[in-house]
Amino acid sequence: MTESQGGKQLRLERSGGFAGLLLRASFQYSQLSEAERGAVEQCFQRWPGSDPAAGQPDRFSYRLELAERSALVPEAHWPEALKALLTALRPTAG
Amino acid sequence: MRSYHFIVPPQLLEQRALRGSAEEREIALATLSIDHSIRAGRIQNTLLAGSAQRLQLAVRRGAGRPDRTVFDAKHRLDTHATSVLRTEEGQPAGDAAANQAFDGLGATYGFYWDVFRRDSIDNAALPLLGEVHFGERYDNAFWDGERMMFGDGDGQLFTGFTSAIDVIGHELTHGVTEATLGLRYLGQPGALNESISDVFGSMVKQYQLGQTADQADWLIGAGILGPVMQGQALRSMKAPGTAYEGDNQPGSMSGYVSTASDNGGVHLNSGIPNHAFYLAAVALGGRAWEKAGRIWYEVMVRRAVGPQAGFVQFAQATTTMAASLFGLGSAEANAVQEAWRETQVL
């Protein structure tokens, strides 16, 4: 973990699904486990960027943001190590 | 049998009608209208010739009857579950979700067969495979190209997805769209993809309830909301943006949402073509599938737009199709055009 990342908030957003609801959660990056931070890093490397991309109908997609970095992860590729983070998601307007 | 041929192929006329200048469009539409009755007869003859072969196939495998299997995902994210809960041959399962999914798949198949003589998603008797209890407290239902997955809901946002027949109609229609227009699931073509699923999902429900357009509630996902969701449904085709507290679907282009989320806002901006369909169906009266539904369906099966189509292209295609099916200047063509104007697409 870099010094700049340690005090940062990791923002997570779920969009899509049949309902198309927007859910969000945020986490203190420094409080994630080592395995979780490793999985987040892999997401940034494998699914970088935040431009919308074509997907499969009604599947969820997950956006991660940490400082200047972002990743857009298709549901089918969401890491098992980050599964617990999903329980913190709450509905949000817009 | 006498064969009629036109110097200008109808496909070219249809292309001109869709993509030409205003003058080209007017001429093409007039020509299409004149040759409509002759072409209709020719198409009918072609269909009759082909129908002998299809009839033989139909008799062999019982076209008009779905081939359904419902699997138990056992709360895993398993898109290839093998534990069978119900088949065509078996008795009702001791599992409410499995029976609801089975019935919903059957009702959707029945709608497409009865109304459009479409034999399953691919019009070639594709077996309908569903999985219930997908994932843990999973708040979603989706079609993955082979099977339809139903989560049980988390009990807070959603109470399940098998009880709403329009949800099942919506998901299976994604398969029909994939088999016909192949609309890219991003931005405006993605929103059209979503809208088509809502349009046909709603019609499946209206067909089952025997409702006319003015009797229908035009809600999507009524009855599946949990206590956290304050509202009556997920989407309203009649009044987009009013289905639940926080619903911000637009009903016209003035409210079009530009966003990177949700594949470019496909579930938000679908409110615009949804509302156009509602306006056309109600203006035409009767049962939605008889005229407005027929027009939308013909645009799909004739692939009148490409996979990247935006709202304007789809609006032009449905307007042209209405003129082709019912005549230039017909009430149907005018109603469709007016619906797209009211939603500020045209």
Automatic annotation (TrEMBL), chain A:
It comes from the Bacteria. InterPro entries: Emfourin. It holds the Pfam family Emfourin. This is Uncharacterized protein. It comes from Candidatus Dormiibacter inghamiae.
UniProtKB/TrEMBL annotation, chain B:
GO terms for cellular component: extracellular region. Residues 92-178 form the Peptidase M4 domain. Keywords: Hydrolase, Metal-binding, Metalloprotease, Protease, Secreted, Zinc. Its cofactor is Zn(2+). GO terms for molecular function: metal ion binding; metalloendopeptidase activity. The active site is at E171, H267. Extracellular zinc metalloprotease. This is Neutral metalloproteinase. The lineage of its organism: Bacteria, Bacillati, Candidatus Dormiibacterota, Candidatus Dormibacteria, Candidatus Dormibacterales.
